[in-house]
Amino acid sequence: MEDKKIKVEVRNLTKSFGNLLVLDNVSFEVFDGEFLCIVGPTGCGKTTFLNSLTKLYDIDSGSITVDGEEINPRKHNLAYIFQEYSTMEWLKVQENIEYGLKIKKFSPEAIKQRTDIVIQMVGLDKYRNYYPSQLSASMLQRVVIARAFAIQPDLLLMDEPYGQLDLTLKYKLEDELIKMWERQRTTVLFITHNIEEAVYLSDRIIVLTNKPTKIKTEIINNLPRPRKVSDLEFVKLRNQVTDLIKWW
Ligand SMILES: Nc1ncnc2c1ncn2[C@@H]1O[C@H](COP(=O)(O)OP(=O)(O)OP(=O)(O)O)[C@@H](O)[C@H]1O
Ligand SMILES: [Mg+2]
After folding, report:
1. Which of 14, 79, 94, 199 is deepest in the core (most CB within 10 A)?
2. Is the pLDDT confidence value at 234 over 90?
3. What is the CATH number of the domain that holds 38?
4. Does residue 42's CB lie within 6 angstroms of at least one atom of ligand 1?
5. What is the extent of the structural domain holding 131?
6. Ligand 1 pocket test: which of 16, 26, 46 has the largest number of ligand atoms within 8 Å of its C-beta?
7. Can you say how many angstroms the Cα of residue 113 is from the centroid of all Cα atoms in its chain?
8. Are 172 and 222 part of one and the same domain?
9. Model pTM greater than 0.85?
10. Are residues 73 and 161 in the same domain?
11. 109 plus 18 within the same structural domain
12. What is the pLDDT of residues 69-94, one digit of tens each?
């Protein structure tokens, strides 16, 4: 990357639950505008890390800064797509998407415009007036994705967001994510179990160990975009990353 300004800096982050040490003195940074993927074995603390980052969990020690200041989800323009569905049951699809925009005090015109764009993008136009309880799992996840995209965050945190979607929709939303990222220069921190997805999306991949969790290695991903999963170079990198995590 030509521009190496640091967006997120994680220093000596340690987090345990009782006497279970989960994150063991983890340090890394995310560069401004970077697309960083984190992969790690199940239960190693990926969700715990994002929950620590967004202050849902207290950490034992260490520091997390955004743009050089202690992270503050109220102040920094970030969006967090949780691993579990997190729609608001009492609001219709459209209202779920508008919610964050209202909190951020966008004008009614801007709210309408942004909502229309993302609702089309995720293919839920016909379901604007449905309640979450009337939707399937993948539709719920699309509502959550649309809500995050709508606020055009400058830091987007995604915890295995596409795991529940069928393949066609997954590919489509991966491409939409890349488009948004290229257009808005969003910094993205994307957690996934799927190596192919990490190689398809990222500029860099951080691989975590089992608990107590440290960084095992990192891989720079300079494959040109747009990427194709069938390209020789793509397949080579995917296999290289796959070999690295065989020890899981
Ligand atoms: N609130 C909590 N209280 C106690 N233990 C917790 C809590 N949240 C997570 N843990 C434990 O911390 C460890 C890390 O959990 P976490 O959910 O962060 O893993 P993960 O890497 O996101 O896993 P997965 O890939 O399955 O989503 C696990 O051993 C889990 O049991
Ligand atoms: Mg998780």
Report:
1. 199
2. yes
3. 3.40.50.300
4. yes
5. 86-152
6. 46
7. 24
8. yes
9. yes
10. yes
11. no
12. 999 988 899 999 988 878 999 999 99
